[in-house]
């Protein structure tokens, strides 16, 4: 065996080792530490209506929002690339996964017995990803392969994927106990029963009666990015953004959550740190009103603080009693990309431009 052949063989082996690591993936299928998808609503202001499948993309290797050349329902989309890892490995005895959604795919049943929360975990003994999103009826069951529901086209939606080392999933499992997710498909092989017993418990549909109202955890991505995860149980009866997140971060927040008429909570200035409802999103080539946006995020009003949080709870009266959470970061790139698209918001007395 020649020396050059051996070097080539080792290089090729290293490539496959890296490419096979479970992680968030960009549209080329390459591993990334994190990515964010902002699916655009079908109806836009002063624009030709879209398909409801276009989306903006941002990741740890980019510098600003990019309008994707793919559509959300394509396997080459960011969501398609990351979830293909699950669809190709869900029968494996070496990987564990969990899919949860309070409105699972293939059913019109909706229950408030679980958290208003949606997401996917996939991991092995090395690392994995946690995908948090806002899309009802998504993603499909593993046996059905990747797809995107027609019901997810009308409104704007958000998703954040973060890659974590295996040890972080013990923390994530503890947070999910507070989320009380509606798990519609999961598999936790025996090799994870000891260190990820919380995930096994959730997967089996069991609950713990001693859950506290809230739990805050610091999560570190595979590349060292720090995130705060705010998890609230049903025993915390308040709007998570107003009553907890803004007060802990000590910053006024601009909140973008679904605002169906008559069901939204007004902007709130009754506590030391205030929360204002965003009313319109503006991008260089399109804009849309918040009542066409089902995404869930909030961002610091002041540029000096750079907090941005993405999650799965809305600011409306009924969800004061629902469990769920938000993932927050002070990443300046993410903050800037979200803060700059706020067209105007309501303070506690009038609209602010």
Key features of this structure:
eight-stranded antiparallel β-sheet; 20 strands; 353 residues; ten-stranded mixed β-sheet; alpha+beta; 19% helix; deoxyribonuclease II; disordered N terminus; globular
Fold and architecture overview:
- The structure is a single chain.
- This protein is of the alpha+beta class and 353 residues long.
- The protein contains six helices and 20 strands.
- The chain has helices spanning 3-19, 78-89, 168-179, 197-203, 240-249, 332-339, and strands spanning 24-25, 31-32, 34-39, 55-59, 66-67, 96-101, 118-123, 127-133, 157-165, 183-187, 214-220, 226-232, 253-256, 275-283, 286-289, 297-300, 308-311, 324-329, 342-346, 351-352.
- The strands form three sheets. Strands 11, 12, 13, 14, 15, 16, 17, 18, 19 and 20 form a ten-stranded mixed sheet that branches. It has an eight-stranded antiparallel sheet with strand order 5-4-3-9-8-7-6-10, with helices on both faces. It has a two-stranded antiparallel sheet with strand order 1-2.
- A hairpin with a 6-residue loop joins strand 4 and strand 5 (66-67).
- The termini are far apart.
């Amino acid at each position: 065996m020649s020396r050059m052949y051996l070097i080539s063989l080792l290089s090729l082996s290293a490539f496959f080792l890296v490419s096979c690591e479970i992680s968030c993936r960009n549209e080329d299928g390459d591993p990334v530490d994190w990515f964010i998808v902002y699916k655009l609503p079908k109806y836009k202001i002063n624009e030709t209506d879209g398909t409801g499948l276009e989306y903006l993309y941002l990741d740890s290797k980019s510098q600003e929002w990019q309008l994707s050349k793919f559509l959300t329902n394509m396997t080459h989309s960011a969501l398609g690339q990351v979830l293909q890892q699950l669809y190709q490995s869900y029968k494996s005895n070496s990987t564990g996964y969990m899919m949860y959604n309070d409105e699972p795919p293939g059913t019109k049943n909706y229950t408030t017995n679980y958290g208003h929360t949606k997401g996917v975990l996939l991991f092995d003994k090395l690392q994995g990803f946690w995908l948090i999103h806002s899309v009802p009826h998504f993603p499909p069951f593993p046996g059905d392969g990747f797809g995107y529901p027609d019901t997810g086209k009308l409104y704007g939606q958000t998703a954040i994927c973060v890659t974590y080392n295996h040890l972080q999933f013990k923390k994530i499992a503890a947070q999910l106990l507070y989320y009380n997710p509606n798990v519609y498909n999961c598999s936790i092989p025996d090799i994870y029963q000891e260190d990820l017993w919380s995930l096994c418990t959730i997967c089996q549909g069991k609950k713990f009666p001693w859950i506290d109202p809230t739990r805050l955890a610091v999560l570190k991505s595979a590349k060292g990015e720090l995130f705060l995860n705010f998890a609230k149980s049903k025993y915390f009866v308040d709007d998570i953004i107003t009553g907890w997140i803004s007060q802990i971060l000590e910053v006024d927040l601009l909140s973008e959550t679904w605002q169906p008429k008559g069901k939204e909570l007004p902007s709130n200035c009754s506590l030391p740190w205030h929360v204002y409802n965003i009313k319109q999103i503006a991008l260089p080539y399109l804009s849309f009103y918040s009542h066409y946006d089902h995404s869930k995020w909030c961002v610091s009003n002041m540029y000096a603080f750079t907090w941005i949080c993405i999650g799965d709870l809305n600011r409306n009266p009924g969800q004061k009693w629902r469990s769920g959470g938000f993932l927050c970061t002070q990443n300046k790139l993410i903050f800037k990309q979200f803060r700059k698209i706020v067209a105007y918001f309501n303070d506690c007395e009038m609209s602010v431009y």
